[in-house]
Amino acid sequence: MQFKIRAATKGDCKEVSRMIMELAVYEKMPDQVKISHEELERDGFCQNPFFECLVAEVPEEHKSKEGLTIVGYALYFYTYSTWKGRTQYLEDLYVMPEFRGNGIGKGLLSKVAEVGKTKECVRLQLSVLNWNKPSLDFYAAKGAQDLTASEGWHFIRFDGQNLENLANEAPKDE
Ligand SMILES: CC(C)(COP(=O)(O)OP(=O)(O)OC[C@H]1O[C@@H](n2cnc3c(N)ncnc32)[C@H](O)[C@@H]1OP(=O)(O)O)[C@@H](O)C(=O)NCCC(=O)NCCS
């Protein structure tokens, strides 16, 4: 199947937002999605964007049952390793079910890596739920290392009241 991978535009945010919800449903946590397409537009298309995004687009003749031509996305941003330097973090990779198995996921992932290479990034990291065996296999097949298995890293998060408390406890400048 023919497809094109390109940088998302502000105008793609509604479609990306739709697929973010589809991915959350797949990940069995749709209630966790609080983001709107307006926030994506604001945060991805400002002077210092918080993320970058690629979309996969198929020609009209291959559009989905619902008439959609944007059928996948990869959303990533830049991080920094004090051991290695410039790195990328892949927040989401998603291809709509009816378009899977056509090389689109691999295309998106490779394109993220290519963008990173042009910026001298030396790592591409991401997180996968432990039951998401198809995706664990997909990344492993591309040569990714499972750091939880090999190095025992835990994935830690502050949010909500815990984050609020932490911020409120910050030492005040005199
Ligand atoms: C993971 C995902 C993005 C892969 O996209 P895709 O378009 O179906 O994958 P591709 O067609 O590009 O497959 C590329 C390669 O991976 C292999 N592959 C795809 N799915 C695989 C799987 N479940 N297990 C093992 N290999 C797999 C393909 O055989 C292909 O191999 P090849 O290069 O040797 O031919 C897609 O299945 C998806 O959106 N899944 C649900 C969401 C998800 O789990 N996202 C990741 C969250 S971290």
Automatic annotation (TrEMBL):
Gene3D superfamilies assigned: 3.40.630.30
One record GO biological process? polyamine metabolic process
Q: Which domain of life is it from?
A: Eukaryota
The Swiss-Prot or TrEMBL record annotates one GO molecular function as: N-acetyltransferase activity
Keywords in UniProt for this one? Acyltransferase, Transferase
SUPFAM superfamilies according to UniProt:
Acyl-CoA N-acyltransferases (Nat)
N-acetyltransferase domain ranges (all copies): 3-164
Entry-linked Pfam families: Acetyltransf_1 (PF00583)
Where exactly are the transmembrane stretches of this chain?
Answer: none
PROSITE patterns referenced in this protein's UniProt entry, alphabetically: GNAT
Q: Does the keyword Acyltransferase apply?
A: yes
PANTHER family found in the cross-reference section? DIAMINE N-ACETYLTRANSFERASE, THIALYSINE N-EPSILON-ACETYLTRANSFERASE
> What family name appears in the similarity comment?
Belongs to the acetyltransferase family.
Protein name per the record: N-acetyltransferase domain-containing protein
Name its species: Anabas testudineus
